[in-house]
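Weekly modeling sync, notes
Attendees: AB, CL, MP (scribe)

Item 1: holo prediction request
CL wants a bound-state model with magnesium ion before deciding which constructs to order. AB pointed out that an apo prediction alone won't tell us much about the pocket. Agreed to run with the ligand included and paste results into these notes for async review.

Input as submitted:
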Amino acid sequence: MTLLEIKHLNKSYMLAGKEKVPVLSNVNVKFESGEFVSILGESGSGKSTLMNIIGGMDSDYEGDVMVQGKTLREMKEIEIDAYRKDKIGFIFQSFNLIPHLSVLENVMIAMQMTDNSKKERTQRAKEILTEVGLKDHMMKRPNQLSGGQKQRVAIARALSNDPKIILADEPTGALDQETSEQILGILDSIAKKGVLIITVTHSQRVANFGSRIVLVEDGCIKEDQFLKERNMSVKETTEKKGKNLSFASSFKMAMNNMTLNAKRNILVATGGAIGILSVILMLSLGSGVTGYINDQINSSLNPLLVDVVKTADKGEVKRQEGPPMPELASEPFTEQDISMISGIKNVDRIEKVTTITGKSKVVFNGKNKELSALGTVTDSIKADNVEAGTLPNENQVLLTASFAKSLSSEETYKSLVGKTVNLYINEMDERNQPVTIETQWVVSGIYDQEDMGPMSGAGVYVSYSTLENAYSQQNLVLQPKQINAYATSQDDVEGIKEAVDKSGFKSSPIASIMEQVTTYVKMASWLLSGIAGISLLVSGIMILVVLNISVVERTREIGILRAIGARKKDIRRIFFSESALLGLLSGTIAVAVAWVISLVLNNILFNTFGVELIQLTPVYMLFGIGVSTLISVVAGVIPSSKAAKLDPMESLRYE
Ligand code: ADP
Ligand code: MG
């Protein structure tokens, strides 16, 4: 069977989309294994076009190209890729080696698409390189070689897949005469082993080297001249079924390219990292601040607490400037109210609370001090904040530090603990007659004023029952102005609040105000992250631009890979891997820097304020790396498919 047969081949180029310029017209020719054919013609006569068609790089023609009886036109795209990979070896005038791969790797890249094990491939590549005289240069990069050596690498690469046909477009065009002859000698010896060698040349001297000269003029075969008997030692090579470029190989190539352009890639990744970095820092700060506020609230305010007030109009609790003081607008609770509230589902216990405002004074050691407010002890009065002594029991009082100081002195106020004070409360009885409640109570302790309960401005605290007893001595009934209901569990708090509101009472707004504050902080941190997110967009665009530049830069490399049989898919994978790697790198840099910044800032914050406000959690770290990778992969879609769509012939045309 004829190895290669071309029948009625016509080809024309469309110029600027309208004018048809014929390049090849009615080419009919047959080639057999072992021939060393020189296609001779002047520049522009259509030689390269013919080679591209034979090599399966160009399918836009009329007529037939048949290889071992199979018509190229009838093959699908992947079959053409496989044909290029398995049957064809390309050698170019400009060598077209991949600059960032070593000589050995340049040869092996074509073999990566075969079934052989890596060891076999390495061994075979070394054999071929030795055959073409490059035994001592296998680890060098192409730019460390002379022109003749580069062309030997190209020949070795073309041979690596054991092709049936080697297409060499002006293989000696860039070489001096002596080197040219060596290269032609190598090609001749390959032909002698049964490979069809087709070279293109415009030099009669070079053409004379082969076994047959096909003279092309203006796209037509003018002469077909057999110089020597063609080589007869045709060996039957076994049909091989090539594999495709593995994902690992594509990934390795991507890695390789990343390290080649290491400086640029690190710069780009760092640029991208700034966006991710600011986002995770903002989120971490937000969660730190929210956590801090929650801690503060929970330490001063029992999360189980629902404080209930009774308002005259049952409407909004009026609030002046400053902290809310719901008790000002509240009405006293009746026994019935109290049992109703303690009867609400999931209420564990209740606390009666009241504040006597502006009706009392304390007398001690002849000193007479008006008391702006007398408060009752609640759970929010914490033993931790007692400076000296203890919390009050029955018939005991707790003095705030400032009141104690006014009663005694700056230096001696702590000595009040254990002393008895007289406390007078001026009340009205049922008939609206003034009554004075007289008490003698022992000072149990001094309370650190700065950390008072959230709603009290009282100078003296006493337990509700002590106060109640003092009132009943004068036949007065003490009615609480606030009820603190404690939920069995935190999940019940909302339900209790609802029940309270339904009963016509009001739950104090303090807890919900605190809740609002944390919501605002959260919103602010998300907003800031959102703003930081804009820089993410910028980094995405940056990665897109860089990958696009990379595609343009590596047009040739892509062409080479396609010429030796890489599929579109393989090219896409290489670029896709690169963009993913870039994103991964970027995210990793961002997380590393965020971590360092959070350590430093937290240290400073801790030393100055005693809190660590930046909460960089593993979730945020993973989030950062994930988002960064996602963004670059998305940014890589366009360049990757652009690279995959590159026409291999076009990519290799510009020299
Ligand atoms: P050779 O290799 O013999 O120098 P080519 O096969 O490269 O010639 O080109 C043959 C003719 O086709 C030339 O006139 C060239 O300008 C034209 N040509 C080649 N490629 C293209 C193309 N992609 N579009 C338009 N014209 C082309
Ligand atoms: Mg040419």
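Recorded for review: Residues 13, 23, 41, 43-49 surround adenosine-5'-diphosphate (ligand 1) (CB under 6 Å).
Action items: CL to compare against the apo run; MP to circulate these notes.
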